[in-house]
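S.,

Sequence below, as promised.
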Amino acid sequence: MSTAPDAPATQQPTPDAGSPPAPSPRTLSRRGWTVIVAFVVSLGLLLVGLLVPIPYVSLGPGPTYDTLGSVENVQVVSVDGAPTYPTSGQLRMTTVSVNSEITLFGALGLWVSGRYALAPREDYFKPGETEEQIEQQNTKMFQDSQSNAEIAALHHLKYPTKPIAKEITTGAPADKVLVPGDEFVEVNGKKITVATDVRAALAGTKPGDTIPVTYRRDGQEKQGTITLGTSTDFGGDPQAEGFMGVRTTDRPDVDFKTTIHLENVGGPSAGLMFSLAIVDRLTPGDLAGGQNIAGTGEIEEDGRVERIGGIPFKMTAAKEAGVTTFLVPEGNCAEAKDNAPDGLRLVKVATLDDAVAALDNLKAGRPVPGC
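The prediction came back faster than expected:
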């Protein structure tokens, strides 16, 4: 009996002593991990520096505007209904550029440039305030500065005035009767000829007293009664007499209109230069005398020029705009003197009268007060 041959056995490969061993899995060295971690951290820091805002603002020179000239073919200061006179030269208002959205690397670049400074954001923006609220506040201050500039200029030119209600405290006793712009005729039986007469008419009154008020609105004389309150109920300082809740001012009584056209500018510090432009337009001759003059200063209705912030940046902007003379509020003189660009003449002013006199003296070659 025959048998089938057995199946051949499976042959196992025999390693060749001359071949390299099979590769084994490799792990990243400590040095490699260090490089990767350093790269990721550096990339994260780079992104933070480029994209994440920091709680600071940058301050720098802003644009300047000739208050005797035009912006986008619209005259900055115009007077309608009264004779005006030709002007020459420039009376430039100056601004500060404020950037509230800056990153770490952006801040470093601005600081290195030497043209900008950094300040904590909370110095300029209250916690919780929105950009819209801040813009509204700046716009309100700018509008007030325009109103003050007109009143101060017309006071300087000796136009007649009338006492009016400038602001009414919301919810105060006067809020039920008066509106801003009402002209006072009589208060508590006393004739009113200037704004300060209103407060004087309340002497001897007390909270709870009811007083008569005669006023003129839209050319018509009206009468009303006001029951006086207490100033502290509306956040005011204590006062002896009853409280109406009205802020008064003497507004020029003229039949012409002064308008200031300038958009995207906020704050009160252009008041002085607006006043000078109004004075220049309404008087013969010209204040600038063909020169390029700039300045700054918040102005009150009585013509006082108040100190402002950011004057080093405003002087830099003025110098770069070709200005040779800069009008400085008296309260800013020390700071201006320490930071004035070479070749910029500083002229100290405390009032609108001072500023007009200084420009007249400059034009005539007479001495002017410096810082």
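Confidence is low (pLDDT under 50) at residues 1-19.

Coffee later?
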